[in-house]
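Researcher: Here's the sequence for the chain we discussed earlier.
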Amino acid sequence: MKQFSLLVLILTISFATNAQVQKPGIEWMHYSTEKGDLDVPNGSEQQTATAVFDIDKDGINDFIITERQKSPSVVWYKKNKDKWDRYILDNDALKIEAGATFYDIDQDGDLDPVFGGDSRSNEVWWWENPYPNYNPKIPWKRHTIKKSGLNKHHDQLIADFDGDGLGELVFWNQSTQTLFLADIPKNPREIEEWDLKPIYKYAHDSEMPQYGTVPGWKKTNEHEGLAKADIDLDGVLDIIGGGHWFKHLGDHKFSANLVDAKYAFSRSGAGQLIEGGRPEIVLVVGDGIAPMYLYEWQKGTWIPKSLITEVDNGHSLDIVDFNGDGHLDIFNAEMRFSKEYNPDAKMRILLGDGKGNFTDYIINEAYSNHESKIADLDGDGDYDIISKPYAERAPGIDIWLQNGTGSPLSTIKGVGFNKPIGLQLYSLRHEFKNSVPEALQKIAEMGIKQVEISDYYGYEPKEFKKLLKKHKMKVPSMIFGWERFKNDIDILAKEAKLFGAKYVGIGWMPHERGNFTVEDAKRNCDEMNHFAAECKKRGLTFFYHLHGFEFGDANGQPMIDFIMNNTTDNVTFEMDAMWTLYGGCDPVWLMNKYGERIKLIHLKDLRWGSGPIHTGSAPDPTSVILGQGQVNFPAILRLAKEKGTEIFIIEDEAENALDQIPQSLEFLERLR
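Model: Thanks. This is the structure I predict for it:
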C-alpha cells in the first residue's frame, strides 16, 4: 500500500455573526505525485485545466489534467486500489487554456470532454470517449468545435439554456470579446466547425475600476467565468459569467443582465445560498487579489456581501453541499507562483447555513491550487478534492480523500440489487395512443412482469385488468388524481384491490405552478394525512410521488423537511430519482435522511446539463437511459436495500422510451 499522510483540519473561524462554528471531524488522507501515489501528468509547469467525471462508467469519478507547453497535452487518471493509473488522452502539444466542460457529445452513452485554446490558439476541441476500449498509451480521437477567428477561450460550459431538454455549449472567446453559444450537431464526428452564435459582445475601450489588484496581462474589461442557475425562476437555466447573467429570449438570442461591472474578470458560481427566492451569485478573483462577494437579488438590484475580504488568485470555485446538512457551501482555493509568493495559500470551504452566514473552514495551507475541484474521487459518497498547481510545485497533483476511502457507495460492482423491476406505463403513452394491446405486448417482450398504473388508456378497469393478466403482469402500485382521493376514495380502493395493488398514491400537489408555498405545503400535507388514514382503513398504503418542486425553502428550512415533519408515518413516498435531482436535491442525501419513508422509487435518469429547476416541469429529452445521466443509481440502490424500499419502477419520459428501456434494463442487470 502506498504511503500516505494525514492532514488534520487545523483552523475553523466564523466571520458571520449568526454562523455557528461546527468543526467537522474529518481527517484528510493526502496523496500526491511527489510521494509516488500517481505519475506526474507531464513535464510542464503550466497545467491549465481540470475536469472530473466518470470516464469509464464504473461508478468512480476519473479526472483529466491539461497543459499548454509540452506533450502529452491531455492525460486522465483512473483509481486503481490505493493509487491512480495515468492514461494518455492526447499526445500532441496543444495550447490549452483554463476551463473545461463535458457532455455526451456524440450521444453514444459515455461522456466526452471539451477544452479551449489559449491566447495562442483559435481552436476549441472535444475528444471522443473510446469506452470501453482504453489503453494507457493510445490517445483519443480529437475533433474541432472552432478552428477559425481569434484566440483565447477561457471557460466553457454545456447545459440546457433554451429549455429544449438538450445541452448547448457556451464559451468565452476573449480576443473577440464575445460569448458564443452553439447547438451540438447531430453528427458531431463529421463536423469540423460548429455553427457558433454570438450571444453577447463587450468592448475593450474602458471599464469600471476593478476590485483589488489584477495582473498586468489582463486586457481592459476582459470577461471570464461561467456557471448556470435558473436565476429568474422561470424554469429555464440561465448563464452566469463576466459579471452578468444571461436570459434566453428565443431563437439563440439572450439578454445581458448586469450583476457587477467591476467583477467581469472573475470566477462564477450560483446557487440557493440564501434559501428562498432567486439563487445567489458568487464572484471571486481568479487572477489577482480581491474580495469574494455573494450577490443577493433584491427588487432588481444585486446586493453584494463580502465573504472574504482578500482572496489571492482564487482560481478554484465550486458550490456544493459539502457536509450534507441540506445547505449549500462554497469551495475556494488560492494559487502560488513561487516558494516566496502567497506562502499561506488557503484551500477552504465556507460552510453555509442557508441564510447567508458562513463558517470559514480551512482545509490546508501552503499548497498551490489552480482549477482544483471538489468531487467524490473514490466512490464512497463523500466529497474529496483534486488539487492541481500552476507554476509553484508544478507539474504535479495533490489528492485529498475525506477520511480516506470508506465503504463503496457509488461503485458499479457489488451493489447486489435483487428486487423485481417494474415499469410505469406512462413511459409508453405515445405507443398506447396507437394500440394498447400492442404496447403491452412490447412491454412483455422486454421481460417486465410488474407495472405501475396511472391511466387505463380508454379501457374500463376490468377490461384493462384482463389485458394485464394476459401477460401475467402484476400491479404493486397505482397513481390517481388528487380529486379522486378527495371525492371518490371508495371506488378508488375497489379499483386498487381489483388490480392487487398495495400502494396507491398521488403524483402532484395542487398549487400555482412555479410557486409552491409553505401554505400550499401545509394545506396539502393535512389533506394527505387524511387520505393516508382513509387508505389504511381500506387495507391500502398511501404514497406521494415527489415531483421536483418540493425542494425549495419553507421559511428557513428545506421544504422537504417541512413536508416530512407535517405528514404522519402513514404517508409514504415514491422518490422519482430524476425529478428529485432536477429539483435541486441529491437523491442520495434524501435516501440517507428519509429512506425509511421512501417505499417506492421511480428509476429515471437525468440528462447531463439539466437542472436544477424547481417548477416540476421538464422537457421530455431530459429523461435518458439509466446509467447515462447524472443520477447515482449504485448509491441509491445500496441505500434502498438498507432502508427497506419495496418497489422499483422504471419511468422513461423520452419520446423514444421504447428504445431506451431495454438499455436501462441492461444497466440494472449490471447492478445485480
